[in-house]
Specification:
By secondary structure, this protein is an alpha+beta fold. The chain has 17 helices and 15 strands. The radius of gyration is 23 Å and the shape is globular. Bound molecules: guanosine-5'-triphosphate and zinc ion.
């Protein structure tokens, strides 16, 4: 039997292997649920209110441009004036402004199409004066932009500041109110909690004695899978691949990226020597599939993969790896050999207390469709080359 107890002939009862939900404290639990609901409100095109801790500060009503309907925009207009458009620093820079998140003053009766253009399309309809008059964002606005990203929406929000006296009207309209302090705390990677939910033996073509273990984030409900190849020997560095999901590459063999090839190579190597594949729900470098497809259209128009993401308001890479660290810890793995070319993955695991004893390069052949993408990863995102490097002692 493995140190994980994974290869028993009859699998353990799921409830017995699941850790109890770690947020025992009721207030923390309610805050987590409220943040989940906040994402759903934005996804459904509904408003949400951020409530600053400072009681003299106004409430902030926000709605996501991506999901907003013209009718809803007209309703927003009845709550407070002027409406503002909240954009990230990356989006501001791509519009020709300074690289800091900002609140742009919308003209009276601004149309939905204009907002959509400012949010993610082009700057054609943007009044240059609005860009010059852009105000810096405060904590409530910053938290709202982060919630939109967490919901995998394009980070652009319409906002209005409201007096606290409107709280009863907001409650009557069933508009969710989220304290900014709760949002800030829960959006921090350090607060991530993972629940180990279920596992099963799944023989795969490359190796029969594989086990899948599913982990779920408490808050958000994002699920990640660990594939354990054979029986782990944690006395020596365990070969590990952290793979961010790529539906187009992994499932369809898209030629636009190198993900499918990298996954295939990692699976063959792990099948041969044992180890773990962490398949992380981080489609589109953490921006989501919808935004990745938007970025592809922008790349067809001439931008590279990084500038396309910035155009949509995202950072070069929106991923973080506390879930990967927590999964390795849950599997009893503290020392690894990492199959990657991405130095951020190495640094993130090391920062999380995982010893990365060596890096194993994972190169794939390029083709006419992904040559620019692979070149950009190497030359703009700092990805490493094909040399395998021991990292001990660094
Ligand atoms: N936003 C965006 N994401 C992309 C694009 N092409 C691929 N991706 C995503 O990029 C990520 C690549 O994941 P990985 O292969 O694990 O990571 P990596 O950063 O390439 O690093 P290594 O493969 O470990 O060297 C996946 O989430 C893909 O969905 C793109 O053009 N735009
Ligand atoms: Zn891909």
């Amino acid at each position: 039997m493995s140190p994980l107890g994974l290869h028993r002939s009859s699998l353990p009862d799921v409830s017995a292997t699941s850790a109890p939900l770690p947020l025992a404290d009721d207030a923390a639990w309610r805050a987590t649920v409220r943040l989940d609901r906040a994402q759903l409100e934005l996804k459904h095109g509904r408003e949400l209110v951020l409530q600053p801790e400072d009681e003299s500060a106004p409430l902030l009503l926000v709605a996501a441009v991506e999901t907003l309907s013209a009718e809803r925009l007209a309703t927003l207009d009845t709550w407070g004036h002027p409406l503002r458009l909240l954009l990230t620093g990356e989006r501001m820079q791509s519009l020709g402004g300074t690289a800091a998140p900002a609140a742009l003053r919308c003209p009276p009766n601004v149309g939905l199409q204009t907002l959509q253009h400012w949010a993610a399309v082009s700057a054609d309809v943007l009044d240059p004066q609005a860009l010059r008059d852009a105000a810096p964002t405060g904590p409530a606005m910053d938290a709202a932009l982060r919630i939109a990203k967490r919901a995998r929406l394009t980070p652009a929000l319409v906002a209005a500041e409201l007096p606290r006296s409107l709280a009863p009207r907001l409650a009557a309209a069933e508009i969710l109110v989220l304290p900014v302090a709760d949002a800030e705390r829960l959006l921090e990677a350090a607060t991530l909690r993972l629940q180990r939910v279920s596992d099963a033996r799944v023989p795969i073509a490359a190796r029969e004695d594989c086990t899948l273990v599913l982990f779920r984030e408490v808050g958000g409900g994002t699920e990640h899978v660990a594939v354990v190849f054979g029986t782990l020997d944690t006395q020596r560095p365990v070969p590990v691949r952290l793979h961010s999901s790529c539906l187009t590459g992994d499932l369809l063999g898209s030629l636009r990226c190198d993900c499918g090839d990298q996954l295939g190579r990692a699976v063959s190597q792990l099948a041969q020597c044992g180890g773990v594949l962490l398949y992380l729900s981080q489609e589109g470098r953490g921006t989501g599939l919808a935004n990745k497809l938007r970025a592809y259209r922008l790349q067809d128009g001439g931008l590279d993969t990084i500038d396309a993401d910035r155009h949509l308001g995202f950072r070069d890479d929106e991923r973080d790896y506390p879930a990967a660290v927590a999964m390795l810890q849950a599997l009893g793995i503290t020392r690894i050999e990492l199959l990657t070319n991405n130095p951020r993955k190495i640094a993130a695991l090391q920062a999380g207390g995982i010893e990365v004893a060596a890096r194993v390069a994972l190169t794939a052949p390029t083709n006419v469709h992904n040559a620019r993408y692979v070149h950009t990863k190497r030359h703009r995102a700092g990805h490493l080359g094909s040399d395998n490097a021991p990292l001990d002692g660094q």
